[in-house]
Amino acid sequence: MSVDVGIIMGSQSDWPTMKRAAEILGDLGIGYEAKIVSAHRTPDRLWSYGKQAAGRGLKVIIAGAGGAAHLPGMMASKTRVPVIGVPIQTRALSGVDSLYSIVQMPKGFPVATMAIGEAGAANAGLMAAGILAVSDPALGARLDAWREALSASIPDEPADD
Ligand code: RP5
Question: Does some domain include residue 138?
Answer without folding.
Answer: yes
